[in-house]
Amino acid sequence: MSEKPANVMGPTLSRRGFIKAGGILVVGFSFVGPELLRGDTAKPTTFKNSLDPTLASSWIEIHPDNSVLIRTGKSDFGQGSTFTAYRQIVAEELSVPFEAITTVVSGHTDLTPDGSGAFDFLGHGTPNIRKAAAYTYQALLDVASEKLGVPKGKLSVKDGVVSGGGKSISYGDLVKNQQLKLTIPVKGDLTSIFGLTIEGNPPMKPVSEYTVIGKSFKNSIISTKVAAKETWATDVRLPEMLHARVVHPKTLGSTLVSAGSVDKTKFPNSRVIVKGNLVGVVAPTEWEAIQAADQVAAGTKWSEWKGLPGNAKLYQHLREEADWTSAPIEKSKESKGDVGPVLSSAHKRHAATYQLSYMKHAPIGPTMAVADVKSDGTVHIYVHNQNPQALRGEIATMLGTTPDHVIVHSYPGPGHYGRSNGGNSGAEDEAVLLSQAVGKPVRVQWTRADDMQWSTQAAAAFSDVQVAIDEKGKMAAYQIDHYMPAMQDDRPVGAVLAGLPSMSAPDVHSGGVTSTVNGIEDPWVYAPVPNVTERGHGTFQVGQKASPLAVGLRDHSMRTPGQFQQNYPRELAISEAAALAGADAIQFRIDHASEERAIGVLKAVRDSSGWDPRPSPRPDAVSTGATPVRGRGVSLMLRSGTYWACVCQIAVTPSTGAIVVEKYTIAVDPGIVVNPMQLKRNVEGGAVMGIGHALFEEVMFDESGITTEDWNSYPIPTMADIPEIKVVLLHNPKVGAYGGGSEAANALAAPAIAAALHDATGKIMRKLPMKPAYVQAVLKT
């Protein structure tokens, strides 16, 4: 059969007879790499052990029985989007039942096409998988038109059956004896943090015709996890696999003087591996590896190092000693007017500084990985990782090879909350180096102390805010200066310790998310304010330049990255400005907002929480005594196309400083709600995490390193800390797109709880977390 080309909204479609019976519709994409972007027509480089993006890197398969398989590089980390929203989106665009999407392949670098991390799953309304489905639908209509002899515009599809002109045919029958290769433009770098992106604008199904999106479908992986049918990363075992522990340096700047040895009479099968400042111990069993590593650690000598300010002096260090001049100052596009004169002549003026401590991603399970470096140089990694393709690139860089030789196999595991979205969480590269040294598969398991002390953390920050209030009680000017060290250090720590190649540490010239430049991440939502200045100031990671290892306090993006550090001071300052103006905090926000959706979530959270409209603090506010006093606070955020508002109602006991969140109400307008049940679950999880950020979580460190080492020194919320949570979902189909629904929920609690504390006591706390001792100190001032 001769090839017959067709055009589908720009992409090229070709059809060939399928030699074998029972064909499968396979949709693949062309790759627009740097060469094509420069106008070079040479074929871009493709990787072995990958789905070829220039030929048949399948995203979607339609089988003869009308079942559908989809592939995505985005690993599931508890959000459930790959198993619910993605299935719904594809089902909607293909006009098939949700149940027809029977198989979801995600994460594995040799089985998925696009890479990118476990974030922004919905892609501001057009994730890759949606465009892939839309292109596929158009291709199916073309084939059906030819098969049925009916013009494409006269065809309709329901439940995977194409009808027109009194005839019909199922997708399954349509693809029998057919193979389609649909070439669609794709750009990007497969092993970068953002992976590949499908280009073009295929027709999407109108929102008015949705039959699948907007309904609640269960997350299919939950039942298999509960029934113990899933293989978790920690369960992976390979033939001849060895177990390992890494003896990390004494401090964040210590170099190796001498490695301890193994007592062969006690541990005859253990072996010490040393590579630069990386010391590992391998053994046939995990228990022997643990015991032998303890012995080696006791005999290992490290240099001393003190180059950190200690958490007690962190703010002073950032304010007085950090370099805020090397990185250019970023100014928001919403900045306008002339703030200075208005502030200096203000009827009333609010000026304050807000501080955030370092916080850990703190996965419930410490990081681990299994690596198998083959004799031919091929590397297999078995892991739970947010960005397997980026990890693949980092391991290739470390080993001085190409990504062709690295295959990452993805398995379920604990949440990482952004820690591995740049490609590694800590153990992967160490496992690879130890496997390479011994010539066998090696499983590296970090301890809880390793995970707390050698992983990255969310960056500390502080912000200076000034607000001018005019005679009418309105904001006449707003100015904020955000100060934060670089927030994305994606260097594999094992490679750094071993002295092997890796990406550069965050620097002014790094570019993108790894730069020291502090961009404005928190969209301004109070448009009527006439004079606004928002500036971001960036610097190097604390201790990075002083450490002989170039390590220091390595930062990494965490759920709602950057925006958390910027929204907390803004929203708490807005609540304080409302109090200064003698206005109700919610009405004050409504009066300064113009976007209908922002006003909508504020009204929804006001009505649903039973908010008592009045200024703060409450008339009977007290800051002393052993009797709990109550207050309420509010916060507002726009993130990834979604508007959020939150009300926290708290009780605080002044004599102890203990805060209890009694009720948490949150309103969410993502535009189109894809799966109400799953969105509600994500919001609830984020709410609980946010309470931990607000009340408990703080990384403690001294002059040499992190002293936090377990859940006692880094507490997170327990079941007893979980309040009544009410989630209000505002389905807003006229928006025409679905926004993000997982991030943001964790960032809203902190400013709302701090405002509630002020409402209850009349005292304001401008530092996170709001631990009892810190609260007591504020209440006594």
Fold blueprint:
Blueprint: E1 6-7, E2 12-17, E3 25-26, H1 34-37, E4 60-62, E5 68-72, H2 85-94, E6 101-106, H3 128-148, E7 156-158, E8 161-164, E9 167-170, H4 171-175, E10 178-183, E11 186-188, E12 196-198, H5 220-226, E13 242-247, E14 256-258, E15 271-275, E16 278-283, H6 286-299, E17 301-302, H7 314-320, E18 330-331, H8 339-344, E19 348-356, E20 359-360, E21 368-373, E22 379-383, H9 388-399, E23 406-410, H10 428-438, E24 442-445, H11 448-454, E25 457-458, E26 461-469, E27 475-485, H12 493-498, E28 531-539, H13 563-580, H14 585-591, H15 596-609, E29 629-639, E30 642-653, E31 658-671, H16 676-695, E32 724-731, H17 749-761, E33 767-768, H18 772-780
Parallel strand pairs: 5-6, 13-24, 19-33, 22-23, 27-28, 31-32
Antiparallel strand pairs: 1-2, 2-10, 3-4, 4-5, 7-8, 8-9, 11-12, 13-16, 14-17, 15-16, 18-28, 19-26, 20-25, 21-22, 21-24, 26-27, 29-30, 30-31
Helix pairs in contact: 2-3, 13-17, 14-15, 16-17
Describe the structure.
There is one protein chain. The longest helix has 21 residues, at 128-148. The strands form nine sheets. Strands 15-16-13-24-21-22-23 form a seven-stranded mixed beta sheet. The model is unreliable at 1-10, 12-23 and 29-45 (pLDDT under 50). A hairpin with a 4-residue loop joins strand 30 and strand 31. With 781 residues, the chain is an alpha+beta fold. It has three domains: 6-220, Aldehyde Oxidoreductase, domain 4, CATH 3.30.365; 235-305 and 367-445, Aldehyde Oxidoreductase, domain 4, CATH 3.30.365; 592-780, 2-Layer Sandwich (Aldehyde Oxidoreductase, domain 4).
